[in-house]
Amino acid sequence: MPRRSRQRNRSSCQDRPRGSLPCPRDGTWTDPLNARGFEQVVESRAEPPRPTHPVPAALERFLGTADLPTPFLVLDRNVVADRYAALAAAFPDATVHYAVKACPEPAVLDTLRALGSSFDVASPAEVRLALDAGADPSTLCYGNPIRSPADVATACSAGVRRYVTDSAEDLEVLAMHAPGARVLVRLLVPDAGSATPFAAKFGAAPDEAVRLLRAAELKGLHADGVAFHVGSQQARPRAFASAVGDALGVAARAGLRRPVLDVGGGFPVAYRTPVPGPEAFAAAISSAVDDAVRAGLVDAAGLLLEPGRALVAEAGVLRASVVRVSRRPGIDHRRWVYLDVGRYSGLAETEGEAIGYVLRVPGRDGPCGPVVLAGPTCDGDDVLYRRTPCLLPLTLGQGDTVDLLVAGAYTASYASVGFNGFGPLTVHVL
Ligand SMILES: Cc1ncc(COP(=O)(O)O)c(C=O)c1O
């Protein structure tokens, strides 16, 4: 979850409604209407976060001149290339498998392929996208262990030779439908500190992971190494370091002296708060590998990365329009701002307010006030931010443009095909 500042915003306290209840601890206050049974509204009075990095120039130029129907996502391939170069430079000995799910736009895949990236895929359809981008199927990593026998057979006949697994049941399917394939066993590791944790949906406990690696060899598969994922938008390099130690411990117990070590994705980007750069993660991972080698657990480890968010988030800006600004007397002292994009048209990561996009309103300056930000559909869950501080201009009105920055990851790929008649997110690529 994004951390919220505890700093009190003195000037905007003036618009605290009469009768609201100040919270003694952190400058938040609670709307007394909660007593009538409305969902509890606790709002921070913190300064709105400012963008921590400027919007890339090409995106600004496009947005400055484009007169296109909203909502849309615009992506800059050069930014993707820059982020790939930075990650590859921080991890010179690793192979990079871009996680297609983060942004499966063919132009993004083409760009990364041309730079030498391979791909982490999660379904036969993603295998097809990667192949269409020119990937060699034998370099793909099928990282999603939830798949049907038909999915495995399709991937195998397309030439995919590497699979991540985490259960005996999936191992049976692999042995049957992808004989001889290379198998990485996904270890369950702590994902605290991640904005969107996996909450134990994937990964085997250490003893089971050792059993699976041994069983793979007995079933005619090749036990290649260990994989993990410390949760997406993971800002703590130490989370990676401790998972590396655990993973290499499992590899050692399974008798792998030179395992592949798939450290997953999770590398964070600066939404509302700064995050460590790729070098910090590389240093933590490499020193944990060195420790394991010094301790005699393994002789070496072949690093594999599966970044998604870190390669594409900063390449995208999502442009939306205001459909309505409502005052809601007797319900909420804040204005409710409804955009033409919401939870179901690309902003799925606002669930639980996990990802706090930075907002800007081009062309509107002046005093701001707090808003609740919501999407356009008739679904009650289609509210983006109730608690995350959102201060938008007091002059904001219907038809105004709102940009969500750092929005290239997990937006277009999450948009529904047409809930309430709102279609998938349009994507423009520069
Ligand atoms: C197996 C796997 N690898 C890589 C990723 C990419 O993660 P991120 O976008 O946090 O880098 C994911 C994301 O869910 C994943 O499930």
Global shape: elongated
Which value, in Å, is the CA radius of gyration? 23 Å
Let me know the number of strands: 22
CATH superfamily of the largest domain: Alanine racemase
The figure for the number of domains is: 2
Strand content: 15-25%
Distance between the termini: 31 Å
Total helical segments: 10
Averaged pLDDT, please? 89
Hetero compounds = pyridoxal-5'-phosphate
Helix content: 25-40%
Characterize the biggest β-sheet.
9 strands, mixed
Structure at a glance:
Helix content is 26%, strand content 22%. By secondary structure, the chain is an alpha/beta fold.
Give a written overview of the molecule.
By secondary structure, the protein is an alpha/beta fold. It folds into two domains: 11-73 and 314-429, Lyase, Ornithine Decarboxylase, Chain A, domain 1; 104-307, TIM Barrel (Alpha-Beta Barrel). It has ten helices and 22 strands. It has helices at residues 57-65, 77-90, 106-114, 124-132, 149-157, 168-177, 206-218, 237-253, 278-294, 309-312; strands at 21-22, 29-30, 42-43, 72-75, 95-99, 118-121, 141-142, 162-165, 182-186, 194-196, 222-227, 232-234, 260-262, 302-305, 316-328, 332-339, 358-360, 368-374, 383-385, 391-393, 401-405, 426-429. Strands 4, 15, 16, 17, 18, 19, 20, 21 and 22 form a nine-stranded mixed β-sheet that branches. Strand 5, helix 3 (106-114) and strand 6 (118-121) form a beta-alpha-beta unit. Helix 5 (149-157) crosses helix 6 (168-177) and helix 7 (206-218) crosses helix 8. The longest helix has 17 residues, at 237-253. The protein is elongated. The two termini are 31 Å apart. The relative contact order is 0.16. Residues 1-49 have low confidence and may be disordered. Bound molecules: pyridoxal-5'-phosphate. The site of pyridoxal-5'-phosphate has 15 residues, from helix 10.
